[in-house]
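Incident log, structure service

09:12 report received: a user says their structure output differs between two submissions of the same chain.
09:20 pulled the input from the user's history:
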Amino acid sequence: MSQPKWRRRPSAPLALSLKQPWAALVVLGYKTIEVRTWPTAYRGPLLIHAARQPDERHLPYLLPDIACQLASLRGGIIGQVELVDCLCYTEREHFVSDSVWHWNPPDWFRPPRLYGFVFRQPRLLPFTACPGWFRLFRLPPSLAEQIQSGRQDSNLRPPGPKPGALAKLSYAPSDGGSAEE
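09:34 re-ran on a clean worker, output below:
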């Protein structure tokens, strides 16, 4: 017999692993579309996991200083977004026209299609070390509770600046300008 809805535990939050510096750009609000080869029907809150391995490809834009600092964090949750849509790119022109939001150069388009996960409401969270996964994944309940409470495990320090050093970062360029400055 199943429990009534009000007694069920909420399911563990979903997360998406991105290589750095993409994860930093997403949680800072510079990158609002993440391009993938697979679609998702999920809509709702999504934790952003910074993968252990960085993306070694050449970036088409200069990274803002604030993103460089955050991009040094790897191997854990660094923020949260709201996943609001999943676009389907079947034509190169559509992919190129959205490049200011997904930050990918035109030659990254691969037919027959790519998908763009559209993010809103980015926010930084205290770094929480955990393994990632290739697709959307659920966190173990203990990690989900740690993230929700904002507690830090002092034995799981990430490389780079202390997590508290990033707590006062803003999310987007204050002048409303481009991230190329």
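09:41 both user submissions now match this output. Likely a transient worker issue. Closing.
09:42 reviewer note: The chain has one domain: 11-137. Strands lie at 14-18, 33-36, 44-50, 76-89, 114-129, 137-138.
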